[in-house]
Amino acid sequence: MIPEGPKVELQDVIEKNPELQREIKHNPQTVKLINYALKLENNIRHTSMHAAGVVIAPRKLTEYMPLYKTRDDITTHFEKDEVENIGLLKMDIMGLKTLTIIKNIIREVRESQGVTIDLENINLLDGKTFKVFQKGDTDGIFQFESSGMRDYLKKTKPTRIEDLIVLNALYRPGPLQSGMADIYVNRKLGREKVTYIFPDLEEILKDTYGIIVFQEQVMQISVRVAGFSMSEADELRKIMGKKDVSKMPAQEKKFLERAAKKGCDKKKLEELFGQMKTFAEYGFNKSHSTAYAYLAYQTAYLKAHYPVYFMSAHLSSESEKTSTDSKIIQYVSESKKMGIDILPPDINHSHEYFHVETANAIRFGLIGLKNVGSNALQTMLKARQEGGPFRSFNDFVARVDLSRVNKTVLESLVKAGAFDCFDLKRRTLFESVGDIIKRSAAIEKNRSRNQKKLFLEEIADSYIPEENMKLEEWSESEMIAGEKEIAGIYVTHNPLEKFSSEISKVSNTSILAIQNKEFKGEIIKLGGVVTEFTPRTSKKGDAYGEIFFEDLSGRIKVLCFKDRWETLKKTLRPDVPYFLEGRMPESEEANIYLESLQELEAMLKKKARKIVITIAYEQIDEGFNDKLQQKLEKNRDSVPYMIVINRGEEARVVINSETGQGIKATASMKKDIEKLTGPNSIEILF
Fold first, then answer.
1. Residue 299, Cβ neighbours under 10 Å: how many?
2. pLDDT band with cut points at 50, 70 and 90 for residue 334
3. What secondary structure letter does DSSP report for 82?
4. Which residues have C-beta within 8 Å of that of residue 362, sequence separation ≥ 6?
5. Is 195 left (phi over 0), alpha (psi -120 to 50) or beta?
6. Edge-to-edge, what's the strand order for the sheet holding 361-363?
7. Is the dihedral of CA 154, 156, 160, 163 positive or negative?
8. Contact residues for 223 (Cβ-Cβ < 8 A; gap 6+)
9. Which residues does residue 560 pair with via DSSP β-bridges, in sequence order?
10. Residue 545 near residue 588 (C-beta atoms within 8 A)
11. What DSSP string runs through 522-536?
């Protein structure tokens, strides 16, 4: 009955909600609860500290105000407005991860290519950079990553940094909810006429198509139209921005009187001041927006001109959170979309962090592996630096101090595939780790007695028990599960990639959009994969399930309750693609409440309407038709198909399957037939 969120006044809700009024009238407990709530409302609940606020004074702060000590910090006892009211300067000094990422890109480019990038002197009209914005390819671009912002970028096609400054200011809750952002888009695209109340305003509002977007514009208008001094204009900006109703009438009277003396029409002045009041509530500081837009442009420039280094630095920035953070999944997906391969961990090629290995490949960093701590990592890297790449697994064991690189570290490296370069089966190594640790002790013992290297190598040959060499390798699914467990992401094989086209058709949002609070519908529809699930018990003693679900944009927690969980837990399988339907909870938490979950391939098969096979005329030769017919027979089922043969840009032949003749709508069918027809030549329609 009572809505959540800021700016909710309980008395207003009571007056406007008949259902709540009836509840108060008929339930004594509700009356008691409401009375307590009204007394508590608007009282200070706790003290807190601004994340980046720093107060600057000409002398000791204690000469101006009392101070307050938390467990770790000393803060002002006054709130920020009171600090400013007594004449002190409060500044927000923020540390941005983006600045570190930029520094790392510049460093890696310099070390790898010998090129020094001077970001302070780049071309601000660079076509390649603006294409990044125009296409909405803004993964990793500061302040421009959200799906909503991408939509505005694709609509408005920015061509100047001024366009980015305006969009950065408009893409905020106030301007979006008030319709300002859409008015800007329509005016920029010529769908809506740009008008100015006074001709003098064109110079001030031209870049924003007649809309008051920035606080600085409010100040300029008051100076130009009403003859305010800059200090008076700044005072007006503060009063409007803070919606100080007690001071607004005096400011309005002063503005109208002074502007009227300059010969301005009274009705137009009232209309203008009304607009200023409305827009100033949402107005953003232009200098702030300019700094952000410039930083965004710099990051986009690096993405456009040094894409592999750009993605490497972003992956490195998330590399210590591979198992908990959604960003790493988003950046891996974006890298692959850009044609950049993510190479698996390798004991001879991986560095501490992700790094560029070739012009279109990034190597996974060892620090992103679970259980591989800093001491073990530095020990291995130091041994490789001093003695060169490890020639074999035995060479690795002989040169690395296994008192620092323990059993858990070795097992994790095996599961992640970091020893694959030695052509040994992962299962053989994993089952041998205990013996390897024991036998390495003999090496260390003999090394301490200064035994000759030859003798050490003879002992090293017996590190792996001979019977373990005969073990069968893990299955593909076991290797995928091991990689995911240790690397936190799917490295060599993502079970979703073969379904990426189909997932985009059946999903109505993405995990990234949900986490950015951009999903506005009721029912969430998502294709993805269950990575892990855990039984839980609520405070009331009810059993429920906690499921972690991934798509190609991120990872999210899904909660499954009561009977649904009792049924689902018997059949749920990790690393298997599923189609999920769910709802968002009423709270602010970005979880999903599960409504239904079914295996993706089975769902696609049910919903498939038609399959389109596209072939280029040049592909067809003597044996092609026979081979295609064989593959169609091999994949026979009930979904009708059509074969489209393209010859040049205009000529096209379409052949439909006969009634009752169809094929499977499965990933295995696509994989099989595309071996003949070529990649991305088959589309399943739903």
1. 26
2. very high
3. H
4. 308, 311, 312, 315, 335, 340, 341, 342, 343, 354, 355, 356
5. beta
6. 341-343, 361-363, 355-358
7. negative
8. 229, 230, 233
9. 545
10. no
11. SSEEEEEEEEEEEEE
Which tens digit of pLDDT belongs to each residue from 524-545? 999 999 998 999 998 888 899 9
Q: How many helices (H) and strands (E) does the chain have?
A: 30, 18
Contact between 445 and 459 under an 8 Å Cβ cutoff? The reply is no
User: With helix as H, strand as E and coil as C, how does 344-406 read?
Assistant: CCCCCCCCCCCEEEECCEEECCHHHCCCCCHHHHHHHHHHHHHHCCCCCHHHHHHHCCCCCCC
Half-sphere exposure of 391 (CA within 13 A, CB side): 6
296, 118 Cβ separation under 8 angstroms:
no
Pair 614, 651: CB distance under 8 Å = no
The alpha-carbon radius of gyration of the chain (Å, integer) is: 32
Helix axes 230-241, 248-261, angle to 10 degrees: 140
**Two structure tokens written together for 128:** 């390649």
Can you give the length of the chain in residues? Answer: 686
pTM of full prediction above 0.85: no
Burial 180-191 (b: 16+ CB within 10 A, else e): bbebbbbbbeee
Q: What is the pLDDT of residues 202-232, one digit of tens each?
A: 999 999 999 999 999 999 999 999 999 999 9
H-helix or E-strand spanning residue 89: strand 89-92
Cβ(193)–Cβ(207) below 8 Å: no
Residue closest to 31 by CA, chosen among 7, 14, 9? 14
The pLDDT of residue 432 is 92
Helix H or strand E segment including 419? none
One-letter identity of residue 114: G
DSSP assignment string, 201-262:
GHHHHGGGTT---BHHHHHHHHHHHH---HHHHHHHHHHHHTT-TTTHHHHHHHHHHHHHHT
What b-and-e string marks burial along 440-449, b requiring 16 or more CB atoms within 10 Å of the CB?
beebeeeeee
**CA atoms lying within 13 Å on the CB side of residue 540:** 5
Q: How far is 261 from 264, CA to CA, in rounded Å?
A: 7
Three-state DSSP string of 630-655: HHHHHCEECECEEEEEEECCCEEEEE
Token representation of residue 410 = 């070795």
